[in-house]
Amino acid sequence: MDDDETMTEAEIDAEFERTQPIGNALHALAQAELAVVAVDEMPPEVQTRLDQVLRDVLGQTGD
User: Fold this and answer.
1) Model pLDDT, residue 5
2) CA 59, CA 51: separation in Å to the nearest integer?
3) pLDDT for 1-58, tens place per residue?
4) Could you say which DSSP state residue 58 is in?
5) DSSP assignment of 3-53, as one string?
6) Are 55 and 62 in contact (CB under 8 A)?
7) pTM for the complete prediction?
8) Which residues, 6+ apart, have CB-to-CB distance to 42 below 8 Å?
9) What is the distance between the alpha carbons of residues 7 and 15, in angstroms, rounded to a whole number?
C-alpha cells in the first residue's frame, strides 16, 4: 500500500505545500530548457546574420 493511501487530506495538503517549491523549480527549469532548444534550432540564415551583427559590434571583420 502506498503512503498516500494512508495519509489524511490535511497531511496530503501539507506535503503538497512542502514540495511545491521543488515543483516550481522543476517547471522553471523545463521552461528554460525549452528556450534553449528554441535557440539551438535557429535557422542558418538568422545565425549568419546574428554572427555578422556580433562582428560589427565587436569591430571585427569577417573571414
Assistant:
1) 80
2) 12
3) 456 689 999 999 999 999 999 999 999 999 998 888 877 777 889 889 988 988 888 8
4) H
5) HHHHS-HHHHHHHHHHHHHHHHHHHHHHHHHHHHHHHHT--HHHHHHHHHH
6) yes
7) 0.50
8) 50
9) 10
